[in-house]
């Protein structure tokens, strides 16, 4: 590098650290720095890089320095410097992408490293119970060595330490696995795709693969993946709220304000931008890196059960202290050493009471259930963005959904064409006047924000747009033999008014290059376009004045198509005069000439009718909100089963959007229960619907896709965005994303949401049965005999069964169809209080009573009745207690069914964990009995244990039979 170039380089780096005012002054003398070419590469083996400073580019866009951009030759010169092309983009080959990433960086930001397994091990060791148990184990180790020497005295203490560490590792493994899933969920939240032009073709790539020099196509609802400069666009408006904190919209223009910042949202218009900065060189990347942290997405149920476990633990601690004091004062020890040994034993007994009293498995069960929900729903085309949505879906009482692409298929087909008052079929369209058809084709192809992906194929182009616009363009190309490239070459777009769901129309102002004519084209909802028209083209291409009779006849045509379930799109046109060579930038909205109507057919998705019926059986109301004509909405709602096909009158059931908005708040609250369809709706209607449902405390899920749906999605109990045709703004505001846009996926998520409640309810019964039975048993034994009948290892094994294996087995239970045959729970508290929980509490009380009676009988009478030693009796007690829990696990799997083995073959995880538990129990009793503190049992004693444990099945069947008779 020459000395002069090196000097300018250092001055440029110095400019980066100056204030914005001083930077401008310095940059005036450095306008050519970023284009300076070095004399030679310092390293002969180094790949030549771009002759541009990435930092200065970033400062130019972040500072929105139009002066600096003008000095550098604007976008065109920067494009050349970046070795790109505004028409065909970059080459996009691997070497080119690698070179750009080396020089400008990748489009990623720094994240905090994920927590490793050791972190969760240390967290588990910090728990009070783990610390106390380890201390007691160390005390036991010390006394054992003191009494029996190192050779024989280490065994009990080390065994206890290993057992505690085993439980710690099991707990840490569960937490580590869930943390990894949360990290993946956090990553999926930030991943979105954008359309770039590479090698002359449009490609959809993940945002993190965008590089400097890429040409990115921007549509309404897109999130900007990087910083850049607008070089082509119409009516482009962005919202920079995530960067500035202000919700004001910013109008971006090619000439006066071309700067686009990463993270902004496109809320109107469309265009193309040249990427100038990516990743950590953008304000968005720096901000996201600073905000990067471990996801902390606790759901209401997790918070509730953490609180419940904490409260029960405090009660258990008080009881444990009472047990310790009773044992201590009844011990009668006077020697100091014996007293310390006795205190250690008493502490172990007290800790055993606490350990079995605390339902530590409840939060873990919720965590595992939610984790399973996320995994299974991903397989069923639903991506969960917020964990709380998993359980809230189980509470949903209303699903508010749009029509196109959700209830109906994503593909439309033009089946009717009306030029004026006459219908034209495909076999006689040659009779239509060429001039009218030309104008219609221009309106179809130019009055749109769509684009052709890949290399243009005139006969069969791949069009990227909404299903409606895609089919209109395809119709113009295939049926009218229209060439897209020819129309775009002959016409120049001057001004655009983009379509949105509120205006329900779009317009474009064009100049025909050869004829030197200016034309305005409109398309949209037929009743809105018709109001703007004073003339119409007939089939022969003649322009006729629209009389009241003609208008009435055209309105009847619109109604007829709507009644047949067609989506009707109207096209209108007007030639605009130039005044003194000046063209008005505003689109004319009156005295237009109607070109005709297109009727598009959109069939219902397969299985939608059955899904709607399933929702009705589940007590879930389905409301269809659509922008279509009232008669179209009624026809489709009948096909989907939302409306009764036998009825003709739908007063109060089908409401026009304008009428819905005109209701007072009181009227809306009175009528909301009866509404099933809202036609010609606007985004305001969805917000009002959400607000009304919230006031009625009726949990609802809202399906949306557009930019203007974002606020309603955010306010809804569960906002669901469409994955295929949903905007990035809508996805960002949602709790869930249906990847296939299908209503069936929404219903599946409701079923899964109910299974969250159902599986947690099962685990509550299982957990509390073990906790209460063990608590009563150990408390009575500690007070009566001065020690608990179960050793530390046995207690820890019971905790593993309850807190880990039980949670894993029940959390992954697949949802049954019976879940959709009852009303949804209203809130989290109903998990413990609704009618089905009456059966749960009854069964829990009966199981606890049976287990306590059976186990206390063994404890007090086992030695005398069976003629056994105390150690064998305690083994018999331990074995029966564990098997009771194993048998009860099968019992609670189907809480409300008498056929307890129903569907067991489908629950593979349950069967595996069931067999593992029994196998480990046999090993503890028969193989490593010295470690476990047990004695080997003969086959008669095993039959006794199994028979007593199987009694839990009998108790469960009796409770279920009694509940069925009484209800």
UniProtKB/TrEMBL annotation:
<feature type="domain" description="P-type ATPase A">
    <location>
        <begin position="193"/>
        <end position="291"/>
    </location>
</feature>
<dbReference type="InterPro" id="IPR059000">
    <property type="entry name" value="ATPase_P-type_domA"/>
</dbReference>
<comment type="similarity">
    <text>Belongs to the cation transport ATPase (P-type) (TC 3.A.3) family. Type IIB subfamily.</text>
</comment>
<dbReference type="Pfam" id="PF00122">
    <property type="entry name" value="E1-E2_ATPase"/>
</dbReference>
<keyword id="KW-0472">Membrane</keyword>
<feature type="domain" description="Cation-transporting P-type ATPase C-terminal">
    <location>
        <begin position="788"/>
        <end position="961"/>
    </location>
</feature>
<feature type="transmembrane region" description="Helical">
    <location>
        <begin position="312"/>
        <end position="331"/>
    </location>
</feature>
<feature type="transmembrane region" description="Helical">
    <location>
        <begin position="343"/>
        <end position="370"/>
    </location>
</feature>
<keyword id="KW-0479">Metal-binding</keyword>
<dbReference type="InterPro" id="IPR004014">
    <property type="entry name" value="ATPase_P-typ_cation-transptr_N"/>
</dbReference>
<keyword id="KW-0106">Calcium</keyword>
<keyword id="KW-0547">Nucleotide-binding</keyword>
<dbReference type="InterPro" id="IPR023299">
    <property type="entry name" value="ATPase_P-typ_cyto_dom_N"/>
</dbReference>
<dbReference type="InterPro" id="IPR006408">
    <property type="entry name" value="P-type_ATPase_IIB"/>
</dbReference>
<dbReference type="Pfam" id="PF13246">
    <property type="entry name" value="Cation_ATPase"/>
</dbReference>
<keyword id="KW-0406">Ion transport</keyword>
<keyword id="KW-0112">Calmodulin-binding</keyword>
<dbReference type="GO" id="GO:0005524">
    <property type="term" value="F:ATP binding"/>
</dbReference>
<feature type="transmembrane region" description="Helical">
    <location>
        <begin position="941"/>
        <end position="959"/>
    </location>
</feature>
<feature type="domain" description="Cation-transporting P-type ATPase N-terminal">
    <location>
        <begin position="73"/>
        <end position="140"/>
    </location>
</feature>
<dbReference type="InterPro" id="IPR006068">
    <property type="entry name" value="ATPase_P-typ_cation-transptr_C"/>
</dbReference>
<feature type="transmembrane region" description="Helical">
    <location>
        <begin position="128"/>
        <end position="146"/>
    </location>
</feature>
<dbReference type="GO" id="GO:0005388">
    <property type="term" value="F:P-type calcium transporter activity"/>
</dbReference>
<protein>
    <recommendedName>
        <fullName>Calcium-transporting ATPase</fullName>
        <ecNumber>7.2.2.10</ecNumber>
    </recommendedName>
</protein>
<keyword id="KW-0067">ATP-binding</keyword>
<dbReference type="Pfam" id="PF00689">
    <property type="entry name" value="Cation_ATPase_C"/>
</dbReference>
<keyword id="KW-0460">Magnesium</keyword>
<dbReference type="GO" id="GO:0005886">
    <property type="term" value="C:plasma membrane"/>
</dbReference>
<keyword id="KW-1133">Transmembrane helix</keyword>
<keyword id="KW-1278">Translocase</keyword>
<dbReference type="Pfam" id="PF00690">
    <property type="entry name" value="Cation_ATPase_N"/>
</dbReference>
<comment type="function">
    <text>Catalyzes the hydrolysis of ATP coupled with the transport of calcium.</text>
</comment>
<keyword id="KW-0813">Transport</keyword>
<keyword id="KW-0109">Calcium transport</keyword>
<feature type="transmembrane region" description="Helical">
    <location>
        <begin position="910"/>
        <end position="929"/>
    </location>
</feature>
<keyword id="KW-0812">Transmembrane</keyword>
<dbReference type="GO" id="GO:0016887">
    <property type="term" value="F:ATP hydrolysis activity"/>
</dbReference>
<dbReference type="InterPro" id="IPR036412">
    <property type="entry name" value="HAD-like_sf"/>
</dbReference>
<dbReference type="InterPro" id="IPR023298">
    <property type="entry name" value="ATPase_P-typ_TM_dom_sf"/>
</dbReference>
<dbReference type="InterPro" id="IPR008250">
    <property type="entry name" value="ATPase_P-typ_transduc_dom_A_sf"/>
</dbReference>
<feature type="transmembrane region" description="Helical">
    <location>
        <begin position="872"/>
        <end position="890"/>
    </location>
</feature>
<dbReference type="GO" id="GO:0005516">
    <property type="term" value="F:calmodulin binding"/>
</dbReference>
């Amino acid at each position: 590098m020459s000395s002069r170039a090196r000097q300018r380089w250092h001055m440029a780096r110095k400019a980066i650290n100056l204030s914005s005012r001083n930077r401008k002054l310095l940059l005036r003398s450095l306008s050519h720095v970023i284009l300076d070419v070095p004399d030679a590469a310092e390293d002969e083996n180094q790949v030549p890089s771009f002759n541009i400073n990435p930092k200065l580019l970033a400062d130019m866009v972040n500072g929105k320095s139009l002066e600096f951009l003008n000095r550098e030759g604007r976008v065109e010169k920067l494009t050349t410097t970046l070795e790109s092309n505004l028409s065909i983009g970059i080459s996009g080959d691997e070497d080119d992408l690698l070179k750009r990433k080396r020089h400008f960086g990748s489009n990623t930001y720094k994240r905090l490293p994920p927590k490793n397994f050791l972190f969760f091990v240390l967290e588990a060791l910090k728990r009070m119970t783990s610390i106390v148990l380890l201390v007691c184990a160390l005390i036991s180790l010390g006394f054992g060595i003191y009494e029996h020497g190192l050779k024989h005295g280490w065994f009990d203490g080390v065994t206890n330490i290993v057992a505690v560490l085993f439980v710690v590792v099991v707990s840490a493994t569960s937490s580590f696995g869930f943390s990894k899933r949360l990290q993946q969920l956090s990553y999926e939240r930030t991943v979105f795709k954008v359309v770039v032009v590479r090698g002359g073709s449009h490609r959809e790539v993940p945002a993190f693969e965008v590089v400097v020099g890429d040409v990115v196509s921007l549509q309404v609802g897109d999130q900007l993946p990087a910083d850049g400069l607008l070089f082509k666009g119409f009516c482009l408006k962005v919202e920079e709220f995530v960067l500035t904190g202000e919700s004001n919209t910013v109008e971006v223009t090619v000439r006066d304000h071309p700067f686009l910042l990463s993270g902004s949202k496109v809320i109107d218009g469309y265009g193309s931008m040249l990427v100038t900065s990516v990743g950590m060189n953008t304000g968005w990347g720096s901000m996201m890196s600073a905000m990067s942290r471990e996801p902390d997405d606790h759901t209401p149920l997790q918070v509730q059960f953490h609180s419940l476990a904490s409260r029960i633990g405090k009660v258990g601690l008080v009881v444990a202290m009472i047990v310790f004091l009773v044992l201590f004062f009844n011990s009668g020890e006077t020697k100091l050493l014996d007293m310390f040994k006795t205190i250690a034993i008493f502490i172990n007994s007290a800790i055993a009471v606490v350990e079995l009293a605390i339902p530590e498995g409840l939060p873990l069960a919720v965590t595992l259930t939610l984790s399973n929900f996320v995994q299974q729903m991903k397989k069923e085309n639903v991506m969960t963005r917020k964990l709380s949505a998993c359980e809230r879906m189980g509470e949903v009482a209303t699903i508010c959904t749009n029509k196109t692409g959700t209830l109906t298929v994503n593909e439309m087909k033009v089946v009717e064409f009306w030029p004026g008052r006459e219908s034209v079929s495909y076999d006689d369209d040659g009779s239509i006047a060429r001039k009218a058809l030309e104008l219609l084709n221009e309106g179809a192809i130019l009055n749109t924000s769509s684009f052709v992906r890949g290399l243009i194929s005139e006969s069969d182009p791949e069009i990227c747009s909404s299903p409606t616009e895609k089919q209109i363009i395809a119709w113009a190309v295939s049926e009218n033999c229209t060439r897209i490239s020819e129309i775009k070459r002959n016409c120049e777009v001057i001004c655009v008014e983009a379509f949105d769901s509120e205006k329900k129309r779009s317009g474009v102002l064009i100049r025909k290059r050869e004829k030197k004519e200016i034309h305005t084209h409109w398309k949209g909802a037929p009743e809105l376009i018709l109001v703007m028209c004073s003339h119409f083209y007939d089939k022969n291409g003649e322009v006729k004045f629209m009389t009241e009779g003609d208008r009435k006849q055209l309105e009847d045509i619109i109604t007829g198509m709507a009644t047949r379930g067609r989506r009707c799109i109207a096209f209108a046109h007007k030639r605009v005069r130039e005044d003194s060579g000046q063209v008005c930038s505003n689109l004319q909205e009156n005295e237009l000439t109607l070109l005709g109507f297109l009727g598009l057919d959109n069939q219902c998705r397969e299985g939608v009718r059955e899904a709607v019926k399933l929702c009705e059986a589940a007590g879930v109301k389905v409301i269809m909100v659509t922008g279509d004509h009232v008669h179209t909405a009624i026809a489709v709602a009948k096909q989907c089963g939302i409306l009764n096909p036998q009825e003709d009158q739908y007063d109060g059931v089908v409401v026009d959007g304008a009428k819905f908005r005109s209701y007072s708040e009181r009227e809306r609250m009175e009528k909301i229960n009866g509404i099933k369809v809202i036609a010609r709706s606007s985004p305001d209607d969805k917000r009002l619907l959400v607000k009304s449902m919230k006031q009625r405390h009726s949990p609802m899920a809202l399906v949306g896709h557009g930019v203007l749906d974002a606020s309603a999605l955010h306010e809804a109990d569960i906002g669901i965005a469409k994955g295929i045709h949903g905007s990035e703004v809508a996805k960002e505001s949602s709790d869930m994303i249906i990847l296939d846009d299908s209503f069936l996926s929404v219903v599946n998520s409701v079923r899964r949401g109910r299974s969250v409640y159902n599986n947690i309810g099962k685990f509550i019964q299982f957990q509390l049965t073990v906790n209460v039975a063990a608590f009563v048993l150990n408390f009575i034994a500690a007070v009566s005999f001065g020690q608990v009948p179960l050793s530390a290892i046995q207690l820890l094994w019971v905790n593993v069964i309850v807190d880990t294996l039980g949670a894993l087995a029940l959390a992954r239970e697949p949802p049954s169809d019976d879940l959709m045959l009852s009303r949804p729970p209203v809130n989290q508290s109903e998990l413990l209080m609704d009618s089905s929980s009456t059966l749960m509490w009854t069964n829990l009380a009966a199981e606890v009573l049976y287990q306590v009676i059976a186990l206390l009988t063994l404890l007090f009478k086992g030695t005398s009745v069976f003629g056994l030693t105390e150690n064998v009796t305690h083994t018999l007690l331990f074995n029966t207690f564990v098997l009771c829990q194993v048998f009860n696990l099968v019992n609670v799997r189907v809480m409300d069914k008498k056929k307890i083995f129903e569907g067991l073959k489908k629950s593979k995880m349950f069967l595996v964990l069931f067999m593992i538990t029994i196998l480990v129990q046999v090993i503890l009793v028969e193989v490593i009995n010295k470690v476990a503190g047990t004695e080997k049992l003969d086959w008669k004693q095993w039959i006794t244990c199994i028979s007593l444990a199987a009694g839990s099945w009998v108790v469960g069947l009796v409770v279920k039979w009694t509940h069925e008779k009484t209800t």
